[in-house]
Amino acid sequence: STSQITLPVFFANQ
Amino acid sequence: MFEARLVQGALLKKVLESIKDLLNEATWECAATGISLQAMDSSHVSLVALNLRSDGFDKYRCDRNVSLGMNLTNMAKIMKCASNDDVITIKAQDDADTVTFVFETPNQEKISDYEMKLMNLDTEHLGIPDTDYSCIVKMPSVEFQRICRDLSQIGDSVVISCTKEGVKFSAAGDLGTGNVKLAQNANVDKEEEAVVIEMQEPVSLTFACRYLNSFTKATPLAPQVQLSMSSDVPLVVEYKLEDMGYVRYYLAPKIED
Prior knowledge:
The complex is a heterodimer.
Chain A (H helix, E strand, L loop, with lengths): L1 E3 L7 E2 L1
Chain B lengths: L1 E5 L2 H11 L5 E7 L2 E7 L5 E8 L5 E4 L3 E6 H8 L7 E6 L5 E7 L6 E7 L8 E2 L7 E6 H11 L5 E6 L3 E8 L2 E8 L12 E4 L3 E6 H7 L8 E6 L5 E7 L3 E7 L2 E3 L1
Antiparallel strand pairs in B: 1-5, 1-7, 2-3, 2-6, 3-4, 4-19, 7-8, 8-9, 11-15, 11-17, 12-13, 12-16, 13-14, 17-18, 18-19
Helix pairs in contact in B: 1-2
């Protein structure tokens, strides 16, 4: 099965 | 003083329809170059980034940058009061706590104005790095909408696999499986019907259907949609607005446990 990851894992907060 | 007038007011109605599924509220950043917006959905899985260039408006004035934080559900209620052929003007004073929408019929015989309260939103701004994507698929936006709708009947996730030959969308669930394959097809009569694939290396990624379906609310904005993919990075789904800018969606992939 798969699990959802979130965007802040990839994009840094500015 | 900020003022932006759009003769083709229906475009603004469509832009709002394309984001209000994902976002309850967002800040419209108004600058001399145009209007932009960047916001994540409440679960931080997807992000909307849109840009409406100032030269795409029929009249545009922005003396200093203004941030207009809006409840998009309320904005949508007001936008529903505009007819599709109305001219729409957005106005705000510097440091104002309200925004005004003016709707004019093409013959100028009916002019409506609606003032809406603004919100102070804590906006998180994410830095999105420039990425060379392994696969870029351009395809008819209506086709993408249809595939997302069809496969969401089968399962909660869609696997998008892209090779030089074509792109395959797959879903699996309790009832069984479904696959839709599209071959590269640049030799069509109409440019907007083409399926074009630029591939550096093949990719296969899994995404949640419900976000993809929300993105397809932008279908009326553009005849073609562009999907940009690389292994283990977010998908970019882009709708280009003719002579105006773009609406882009980013979606984090699902990963194997």
